[in-house]
Design brief:
alpha/beta, five-stranded parallel beta sheet
Length: about 290
């Protein structure tokens, strides 16, 4: 697991925001990195007599050289195709990659419309984990080396949400990361706070519900602790997406790991899911 990472780039500075994270993970995991550029032969025609993709090959080789100089085993690949998402997923499959890492921004400037972007479609269709990096709000991608010390794991009590845990365990054990398990309890007081602006005390039933959530998280934490991992858990109250984003922003040097599926079962509506909200607003890497 996490032995070969595919990193799609399009030549833009924004898409390169993924590279410091790819470098950090590759070095820590001993993983190989393949940089990929997909050339649409209709849109991208060479300015001279050279073949399609010449400019992209030179660009990828420069990026590969930089990663290799940092001790990361790196190669590069340029493919020609009309459908970028199909090419990314196909190449990941053919190369045996077990992780795709990419930015939410790129040459097209669709950072404001992640729902329709290549990144979203890869998230929706890829059969392997996808690490998504959203550049800071000022639009300047991260260039300096990064460090990750913890992994935040939102859960909702469902087996589908827990599908992220094997990947979390692998990353935490190999990178010495602390694990922080989260669950956001939706309670009636939330409605009062949001609609009326007058939060009230929890009812006995709501307190009992939050205690049940805490017991669930404690059980998951103990399973992971039994494997020698450092784990703590937090029960939050409010809107899941907003509370996860707030917690992630207040937790430095973290990565968020979560499933695109959960209790709602809205796998085909990932566009409006909690996962999409976290990707768009947390500012942290999301696996």
């Amino acid at each position: 697991m996490f032995e070969h990472m595919l990193v799609p780039l399009d030549g833009s500075a924004l898409s390169e925001g993924v590279l410091p994270y790819a470098e950090y993970l590759a070095r820590g995991l001993g993983a190989r990195v393949t940089l990929l550029s997909v050339v649409n032969p209709v849109i991208r025609r060479p300015p001279g007599p050279g073949p399609v993709g010449t400019e992209e090959r030179e660009y990828l080789e420069r990026q590969s050289h930089r990663l290799r100089s940092e001790g990361v085993e790196t190669d590069s690949l340029v493919t020609v195709g009309y459908y970028v998402v199909d090419e990314i997923i196909s190449r990941a499959n053919k190369l045996g990659c077990d992780l795709i890492a990419m930015s939410t921004h790129g040459r097209t400037g669709l950072g404001q419309a992640l729902l329709g972007s290549v990144t979203h479609d890869v998230l929706h269709r890829a059969p392997i984990p996808v690490l998504v990096i959203r550049p800071p709000e000022d639009g300047e991608p991260v260039r300096e080396p990064v460090k990750i010390t913890s992994i935040v794991v939102p859960l909702d009590g469902s087996e589908l949400a827990e599908a992220a845990l094997p990947y979390v365990e692998e990353l935490a054990s190999r990178l010495s990361l602390d694990i922080i398990l989260l669950q956001v309890a939706r309670v009636g007081a939330l409605v009062s706070a949001v609609v009326e602006g007058t939060p009230r005390d929890l009812t006995e039933g709501e307190v009992a519900g939050m205690s049940q959530v805490s017991r669930y998280l404690l059980g998951v934490a103990r399973r992971l602790q039994d494997r020698g991992l450092q784990v703590r858990h937090e029960v939050l109250r409010g809107l899941p997406g907003a509370e996860i984003v707030k917690f992630a922003r207040e937790t430095p040097q973290n990565i968020v790991a979560m499933s695109t599926h959960g209790r709602s079962g809205l796998s085909y509506l990932v566009l409006g899911s909690v996962t999409d909200h976290v990707i768009k607003h947390s500012g942290d890497p999301v696996l």
